[in-house]
User: Fold this.
Amino acid sequence: MPLTSKDDALIETIIKRYPRSRSAIMPLLHLAQARDGYVTPESIEVIAEKLSLETAEVNAVATFYTQYKRKPVGEYHVGICTNTLCAVMGGDAIFEAIKEHLGVENDEVTGDGKVSVEHIECNAACDYAPVVMVNWEFYDNQTVQSTKDLVDSCRAGKPIPPTRGPNELPTWKANSEVLAGVNDGKANEGVAAGEATLLGLKIAKGQ
Amino acid sequence: MTKLTPVLSAFWDQKDSFTIQGYKRNGGYQAIAKALAMPADDVIKVVKDSGLRGRGGAGFPTGMKWGFIPQGDNKEHYFVVNADESEPGTCKDTPLLMANPHSLIEGIIIGSYAIRANYAFIYIRGEVAHVIRRVQQAIDEAYKAGYLGKNILGKGFDLELVLHVGAGAYICGEETALLDSLEGFRGQPRLRPPFPAIAGLYARPTVVNNVESVASVPAIIDKGVEWFAAMGTEKSKGFTLYSLSGHVKNPGQFEAPLGITLRELIEMAGGIRNGHKLKFWTPGGSSTPLFTDAHLDTPLDYEGVAAAGSILGTKALQIFDETVCVVRAVLRWTEFYKHESCGKCTPCREGTWWLVQILQDLESGKGEAKDLDKLLDLCDNIAGRSFCALADGAASPIISSIKYFRDEYLEHLKQGGCPFDPAKSTLFDLAETR
Assistant:
């Protein structure tokens, strides 16, 4: 369902955060994905109207950023890092194995609409390589087998929880709403820091 | 052995380190009281005197940047934090914001007060949902505690702070592209001058600082310039986060005085993984020229790394052992730059595609020896010929890898393919998991 009048109050709140309304275009595009799972032409029209822009101006922004999708992704969108470091440490092997396992190519969704796969660039967790993201939650230190288990759990509707993230993996739409600035009450869930993050501190305490 | 200096990371091992209670219990939000009691110019002077330099890559003195903002100009000023951490290998701001977002918020309050800004933004990359939750919660907590909003601490200073979530574009880590993106446009770099200090966000005077730089400010205000400057080296003062990743036994974050060496850090990380040896590494992300085992004792400060022919960058130390093909590694980085080029400047937009094509040929053994010279010639025509430094970054791994590993490129041509087995560089046994 595209952005509707039910979203008006939230849209107003988002626009009011900024000194100039046009700055709200990115959170509103995230919000559009929270409703439809991707950016639909209908949502583009709503955003353009709310911000007094041409639809072409909103489209120009939506097509620039890779997180805005132009077609549906899965309920669980799996991003496998294949930038150099993750790639050599196993990301390439994971990416190939998962495509084969699910029978999909890059940027494709499984027939049941549950899981889509994309190779992603560095996601700022290199000390946990190889890294896999699902709906932009961290799955650290992955192997071919652990990622197969992960995508299977997503297809079964009982996803394995993230390594550093909420207790339960939110859906793609739910997390898109978080990116739009909506508080889902899960900030206190999960660890403060992972093991690799704390390594230097642990050593310093022993020095 | 250099002693580690956990400051930002000092209490990350406490379960609630990311909450306002956790931060305050560990001395947080004491620096703003001190700073807001000082004339704003004096706050700038303290940061200048500390010698703090930008931790996002360029190493520009933070206090000097703040001092560039024209005062008494009757214009709105903006304080913008670059949390779009995307440089390959870089993984310091993300764990910092997950474990200790309040140190950034306190730094933003101090910085905004110093440059006389009443509006501040954190531009965070969109691919880190849980970090976004933590930062947003920290902002909400700071508002509730009266550290943000109207009349902060009763000192008559107002500040609004907005978290702006990106959408997957490396280029938005470039400060002027970030500003365009924040204004609601495609994130493409601007020609400078004018610099953001004169015409930044909405064409108003704007400071753009990296997360770690800003988060370091409260400790400097709290503990003083002398304390800070006692750490580090002559021109690279203080502590910083070094991120060790790749083929070491225990990768992780190390907060150390500037000038520590990779030899020391690798020792702390338990050495290179068993049975292997160091081949090449990046000192500060993929855009900084590669180093080899000849650079193990290079002091990792701004001057030391520059003198050895690279850039300290983000202190993202990506370690690769002898199982890794340097041509494959460089090709992959080049594909990244090709994908992330915003398309504004022709040399970068077109050149990165050409680089990928030539490198693909070389890696698969189809190229010719003269292709190496063609690559270098292309790099010469791409680096320094675009609005921003993305193109320079794209050239760095290519030029440096040819400098140190020309023979390995040629070996691909001799063998008609890659002489390396990729299965040997993976962390898990491929045969077992198939």
About this structure: The radius of gyration of chain B is 22 Å.
